[in-house]
Every structure is written in C-alpha cells, then in structure tokens.
Predict the 3D structure of the following.
Amino acid sequence: MITDQLNIPKQICKRCILPGTFPGIKFNENGLCNHCQKQIDSSQTSNTSTKKRNFRYRLDALVHDLKGTAPVYDIIVAYSGGKDSSYILKLLKEQYNLRILAMTLDNHFVSPAAIENIKVITDKLAIDTLIIRPPWAAIKPMFNLTAQKDIFSKTTLMRASSICTACIGIVKSIVLKTALEMSIPLVGYGWSPGQAPIQSAILKTNPQLIQTNQKVLINSFPLELKEKLNQYFIPDSYFKTFKEKFPHNIHPLAFFDYDEDHIKKELKKMGWKSPEDTDSNSSNCRINAYANQCHILRHGFHPYVWEIANMVRQNIMTREQGLIKIYSDQNKEMVSYAKEKLQQ
Amino acid sequence: MNEIKKTIRKFIIENFLFGEEDNLKGDTSFLEEGIIDSTGVLELIEFLEEQFDITVKDDEIIPENLDSLNNLEKFLTRVEAK
Ligand SMILES: [Zn+2]
C-alpha cells in the first residue's frame, strides 16, 4: 500500500487524520478526535445539502441585485492559477456571466506553470487579469522573517504556516483595497470546502471587523517591515470613505459540488495543466514546500492538515488521499530552491 | 456567570485557547489578543448559529457584538429576546 511510505505519526484520528500533535486535540476511546465527535453531534441537526442549495439561491439573488451596477467589474477574484481559483472563474463566467477582474499577487515564487495557466484560463474565459508584483526588497524580508519565526497567533498557525499567513494577508488586503477603489461589489475566493465554514460562504464584509483584523496582522510585523508592507494594506481613511461600499465576499466552492478530479478534468478541457503533470517538482507556489517544512519542524504538524482533515471528514476527499497529501515528505528540491532564493 | 457565557467560554477555551484559560476575562478582546483571527470569527459564527439556533446577520458581525465574552453575552441576550 502506498501509505506504507508515508511518515504517519503514531497517534492520529481514526477518521480525519488530525495528529496527536495538533493543538488542543483530544481522542475518545474509539480513537476519534474531538473535531470528528463534534461533527457527528452537529450533523444530527443540520442538513448540508439543504444548506448548500440555500446558498446557491442566495448567490443567485445577490447576482441578480448587483450584476451590472458597478462601473466596470461585477466581481474581483483572487487568482493564483491553481485549480480551485481557476474553477471559480469558470463557474462565475459560465453560470453567471459576470464581468470579472482576476487579481494575482506575484510573490516572486509563482511557478512558470501557474503563470501559463493564468494566461490560458483568462484568455479562454475572456477575463482581465491584474498582476501586482511587490519588489523583492519587500518580499524577501517578509519571507525570511516568517521562515525563521512565528509572528502570528497560535490560532492562526493552526491553519496555515507563517509564510502563507503573511502572503495571504497581503492578497486579501490588496484584493479588497482594489474592490473599494474600483467600486466592485463582489469579491470571490477559491477557498476549498475545508478552508472556511459554509456559514460564511456569502458574507458582506464589515469595515470595523476588517480594520481590527488588519491592525492585528500589521502589528505582528516588526517596524521596519511594517513600513515596507504598509502600502499593500487598506489605508485607515478607506474605512470611512468607502464605508458604504464594502463588498460581499463569496466562496463558491463551499456550496457548489467539490470534486478534485472533476475540477481538474473540466479545467484540462480548457488547456489548464496540472502542475504535477508538467514537472514533478512543480506546484503553483515555489515557496510552499519550504513553508510547510518550516512549520512542521517548529510545530510538529503539517500546516494544511486542518483543511485536509475537514475535507476527509466531509467525505470530499478519501482518507488515503488525505494521508498522502499530509504525510508525504516535502519535495527536497523545492525546499532548497526557496531556501537558496531567499539568500540571494 | 450565566449559561450563555459559560457555553461560549467553553467553546473559546476548547477551540482557540487549547485548554489554557488563564487570560480569558469577560472583556478580553478576542481579536486584539490574537485569540480569534478572521477565519476564527467565521467559526465562532458557525458555532453561535448551531448552538443557539439563531441566524447572525451580516450587519451584526461587528466587534461590538462578537469581540469578547461580555459583548457576546449582551448580543445573544438581545437576539434571543426577539
Ligand atoms: Zn478526527
């Protein structure tokens, strides 16, 4: 069996693959973790397929109300070129015919395969792409610091590595900032169903809450870095000026059917290539393996295990697929690539 | 401490403080103390909706309602009274 070659910890949930090293985890006498037990309790009261259907109605209604009201774009989508964000571009274009702006952060580690996919998909769907590329002088110290140190709270680090948290923080801010500046009423993310609860799949962003969250994130950085990164965050004045214009965030993959193989198959028909197929050392982001390794060494668990365990628990992914994703070694060449680049 | 507060306190401690409850006071700001982050807020809402059988509206998702045990208690008492 392929799972024989994996580094599976001794103690791991019998169902969802969360390890005994995961913060706050408790196992019952059957080897089920507290998160799985909670899900069993709550699934008796809630029906996921009804919930999903209701969210689709809500999105239909929202699109009906907002489509065409903005000057140029109906929605801005945070776009990495990966399968999930590529797929939501397809969904939003083909099912809703929205005027879409795809926005990509070039963090200097975007793989050539991902760049190619971004071009292929946005051409095929006739979507504008806006790429923002902060200079290496801003990116390098941010990644060097977060590679070496955990500057974010324990809760945040439960779900993502320090490197990813810093980078995604910037993505979210730039996307929202652009939405406000361009009066775009919707913001789309390709979060997988394991990344955020379905309850928040459609949510009007609240200026006060965003401002508080942003303040906490920015204050995690040391002063010198804060000055370098400041321009990527939302200026304080925006929270007043654009108070009435804060967009709705939507995460369509939380309520549309999610099947990795199906998504890949659909995208391949459009010319999208799976990074693993083009080059075994490839992924969308070439700092990812290093980010994972730093996190595993410091915390004893994989930064994606929360997301993947959620998907195993929801039967979106098999247990074996989850084990392979989480308990395989990080690609050594990718780790050295990122490490060396950060020295340059 | 009333039941609402006890239930929420237990949820916060189990899910965000990993059992370490020392610093959690009634007026401790979840956001500013890094106890709950932006994804955590979404999980808190999920919990409130299921546990108390309520719907938290978009315009109710503000620090004033959610960002401490005291604020949550006031908010839930108000919502449940409706
Ligand atoms: Zn489990």
In short: The helical segments of chain B are 3-16, 38-52, 63-66, 69-81. Chain B has a mean pLDDT of 87.
